[in-house]
Amino acid sequence: MATSMKKTSDWIFFHEIPSDVTVHIGGASFSLHKFPLVSKCGYIRKIVSNPTDSDPLVIEIHDVPGGPEGFELAAKFCYGINFELSTENISIVRCVSEFLEMTEDYAIGNLVTRSEAYLDEVALKTLAGAVIILQSSVNLLPMAEKVKLITRCIDTIAYIVTKENEFCSSRSADDLVSSSSHLKGIVDWWVEDLIVLRIDIFQRVLLAMISRGFKQNELGPILMLYVEKCLQGLEIHGKNKKKIDSKQEHEKRIVLETIVSLLPRERNTMSVSFLSMLLRAAIYLETTMACKLDLEKRMGLQLGQAVLDDILIPSFHFDGDTMFDVDTIQRVMINYLEYELETKNNQENDMEKVGKLMESYLAEIASDRNLLLSKFMNFAEHIPEQAKVSNDAIYRAIDIYLKNAHSS
Fold first, then answer.
1. Is 140 exposed, middle or buried (0-12, 13-18, 19+ CB in 10 A)?
2. What's one Pfam family here (predicted)?
3. Out of 121-135, 150-164, 364-378, 394-408, which region has the weakest mean confidence (pLDDT)?
């Protein structure tokens, strides 16, 4: 920072004239001259116009957008020193110029006008540019909202992405439930830019896309990749819950609850294995009950596509509870049965497949010493009779329960 401040002093055209104003910004000091500053900077002009006994004048400014870096760019402009506007610095320049009142009221072609022209003519013409500006604008609140930087970036992103909606619509239903590695190949042209966004901004972008006509049932790939990035490092497949930093846990919980609220409502737009992963994470992170019940219902509607691993969800407890979250899977099964009842004419009736899956699950949980007989029997009784080919699987599960786990 000291080197940066020295450079600022070296820029001054009037080397033989001592500085007559010192500006303190966030622990950094700038030795400058009143005239270049007041000629373009309304904020400084108002301060200088008030009489003071201090000589040289000392000004302390708080909450400058971009801090010393932002003020340094504004000072350069006041002294007529050229610097390149870019997508990396335009949000700081736009916000600091607004804060310092560098408008046409004080100089023709002032920094507010220059930065606006760059935004309109260059920076907000591409998706990548809009995303970079959006990311940096998040750190410049509330000024970035005041000058509508965030809103404009979101509108630009939504416009560019939805313009390609025709391409997105040409993808098959199978693509939408593919693995994340396959999805990267499908939406590589825009999704990688968006998944870097903070969750609240990411949500605003997707809602803007939907309002522009982007179909919600085509959001699957981007939601999957966003979850993959944000829930990295969360060990949701082990039997015990490992402690993580409380702040990090809270952030991941917010991410998950937001993603679930954005999931397409239509059945079969997300794979059952992905829904299972979200449900595991929801139980692990102790999200709201509404979030968990939503995922349970979604899984229930697609239970016919599930395999055993999808429903072997750990209970994540240390207190001697069952190894697997039996109550959750029972609710998933009930959701499935209710759906089947409502759509009894459905040609894709897969009751027998679900019955076999539940019998396999029953055999798997039967070896758990902490599983109460009442819970074991209650689960077995919920497996519909029409789904059973024979009673052999149920007897085998009962045999495992009695012999291996509860012989004492």
1. buried
2. NPH3
3. 394-408
Q: Find out whether 315 and 323 touch, Cβ atoms under 8 Å.
A: yes
- For residues 150 and 144, the answer to whether their CB atoms sit within 8 Å is yes
Beta bridge partners of 29: 24
- Block residue for tokens 């919980």: 253
- Planar angle of CA 162, 163, 168, nearest 5 degrees: 65
pLDDT one-digit tens code per residue, 113-172: 999 999 999 999 998 899 999 999 999 999 999 999 999 999 999 998 888 665 555 554
Cβ contacts of residue 57 below 8 Å, gap of 6+? 20, 21, 22, 34, 48
First-residue to last-residue Cα distance in the chain: 72
* Cα dihedral sign, 358-360-363-366: negative
Give me the DSSP letters along 295-321. HHHHHHHTGGG--HHHH--B---SSS-
Q: Quick one: pLDDT band at residue 189, thresholds 50, 70, 90?
A: low
Element (H, E) at 28: strand 28-32
CB of 112 within 8 A of CB of 98?
yes
pLDDT of residue 167: 55
Tens digit of pLDDT for each residue in 14-41?
Answer: 456 677 888 899 888 888 888 888 889 9
Give whole-number Cα distances, 52 to 57, 80, 335, in Å.
Answer: 8, 27, 75
Q: Write out pLDDT tens, residues 86-128.
A: 999 999 999 999 999 999 999 999 999 999 999 999 999 998 8
Q: How far apart are CA 196 and CA 59, in angstroms?
A: 38
How far is the C-alpha of 223 from the C-alpha of 353, rounded, in Å? 29
C-beta contacts of 207-210 below 8 A and 24+ residues apart = 208/154, 208/155, 208/157, 208/158, 209/157, 209/158, 209/161, 209/162
